[in-house]
Specification:
Number of strands: 0
Structural class: mainly alpha
Strand content: under 5%
Shape: globular
Helix content: over 70%
């Protein structure tokens, strides 16, 4: 004889409460996704970011204990943001050749910028590097995605070496602080606004009255100096 499973009103109430939490903060998830999208290439679909973030919110709602944390969004925001970055990492199918091209393109952009105070067009880079414009565009898009990752990951990706095999995490933080101290006050502020305030280049440009191209070059200058300091392959 099959025993019928008893209905559990208490369990139903918990489930409803959890679902209500997700619905309440869904606009915040959407806002976070659109905020991230502003810093990404057009090939990334914001709806995919929203979907990933919502899935993470549902998982978090099942584990959330308001007795330990009275703010669900305070508890979940970093995890939702992290799930979106994990999704971007999963899209990384770049080969070694692709990574090399990104570095070559970045170097050519830096060279051009030092003379013209603006970034070159993809058509110009295509002609100089004798690569198709499509490949150049892909390299520039890849560079945008990489720039959203934590600094240690960016260095690892472009150096093709595991940064934590070279230094401990605390040591890397000290190296970054030391290098940043050598930057001008405005350059330090740009790094602060980009990584910690999560502003996009357009917003930082408006605040500091400095071109987006210049901001991009300051960011790349930091990564280059960190790689040099660590003695990592930058070729």
């Amino acid at each position: 004889m099959q025993i019928k499973k008893q209905h559990n009103p208490y369990s139903d109430n918990i489930k409803k409460s959890q679902n209500a939490l997700v619905l309440q903060y869904l606009p915040a998830v959407r806002a976070l996704a659109y905020r991230l999208k502003e810093r990404l290439p057009t090939s990334i679909d914001v709806n995919d970011l929203i979907s990933i973030g919502t899935e993470e919110m549902i998982k978090l709602s099942r584990k959330y204990d308001k007795e330990q944390n009275d703010s669900f969004w305070g508890y979940g925001r970093q995890r939702v943001h992290g799930s979106m970055l994990d999704y971007l990492r999963s899209l990384d199918t770049m080969s070694r050749a692709d990574r090399r091209l990104i570095k070559i393109v970045d170097k050519e952009i830096e060279k051009y910028f030092s003379t013209h105070e603006e970034e070159p067009t993809s058509q110009y880079l295509s002609e100089i590097l004798e690569e198709s414009k499509e490949k150049i565009d892909c390299a520039r898009d890849g560079s945008k995605v990489i720039s959203l990752m934590p600094i240690n990951e960016q260095i690892t990706i472009l150096s093709e070496e595991n940064i934590f095999e070279a230094v401990e995490k605390d040591e890397l933080i000290d190296i970054i602080k030391e290098i940043l101290n050598k930057f001008k006050t405005r350059e330090q502020l740009i790094i602060q606004l980009y990584y910690f305030e999560e502003l996009n280049l357009k917003e930082i440009s408006a605040i500091l009255n400095i071109s987006e191209s210049r901001i991009s070059q300051i960011h790349k200058k930091l990564l280059k100096q960190i790689r040099n300091e660590l003695g990592l392959n930058d070729g």
